[in-house]
Design brief:
Length: about 375
Amino acid sequence: MKRIGIIGGGQLGKMSAQAAKQMGFYVTVLDAAPQCPAAHIADAQIVGHLYEADKLRALAKVSDVLTYEIEHIDTQTLKSLHNEGHTIYPSPAVLEIIQDKLTQKQVLAKNGLPVPPFEAVDDLETLTHFPVVQKARKGGYDGKGVVVLKSPADLVNALQTPSMIEELIDFEKELAIIIARTPTGEMATYPIVEMVFDDKTNICDIVAAPAQIDEVIAEKARKIAQHAIESLEGVGVFGVEMFLTREGQVLINEIAPRPHNSGHYTIEACVTSQFEQLIRVISGLPLGLSDLLRPAAMLNLLGEPGYSGPPVIEGLHEALAIPGLSFHLYDKANTQPFRKMGHITLLDESLESAIAKIQEVKNILKIKAENTKISY
């Protein structure tokens, strides 16, 4: 059994470590926080930042294969380790492309994949067409690093960082799909899901599986996502986010080279979770089935606005009384407003029923903090 090293110890690292430990692997995580979520599951932790070359090398030394749960890491050191013979999935070359949103879009477009019209921008004052979406080329996550500029008056809110702009797409739905690909090119494709985003936070609120779309559209989206991962020569598990326009066009928004928030439902709702699939891929084991067992809806549990500190969960007893509900807490030491603290998944006979129960849970389950309400 291979020794697995996971770069990053957040919730994705924790759930990946859980899958690995269930299968009997030895897991070491690298994270700057000694009590990071994955530290509670892994066999060992190296405490250090993800841009510290010596810490990355220390992790490689005690691991047979490396993977990562976050894009914001030192690719130069990973490239050196790869050239020295260390096994890293997805490869540092793929990570380097995806880290830069402009480079990512350029590579996708060059390979004939449908993406929103985009361009590099050095001086936003020269913009003559609106509305557009400004995206930081590097470092964005969970709605950060993205600004909608509807008119020249919005330029005061523009990001002051190297960025790109895209046409603002009038989409009907935001879709996503998890794709797993092995070193030999075999792929496992999960169902197309719909993501519903919170307007205030721009963070994914609910994921519905399967997406309520025509099978012709679903097949088109599957082929586009598969082509994208093949074009990148990606090995691992990838989350492909897409727009479905009102004209029925499918456009790639972004690709994540790791397990993705839109795939959390797979833990309960699919034969093989996205996390187990990752462990299978990087350890050279056969792919598992990606079939959906029952319709499912997933809800992200965010820290309540106005609260910061050690988390306190309200309404858990009442929520767990709802049939088909599974609760996941990420073991983060402190909650903050709108921080991802956990998720729940609801399985039901129909997607409509699952979503109705999710809406019920939203009114019940709250993550606050003990005696630490923030005053504004």
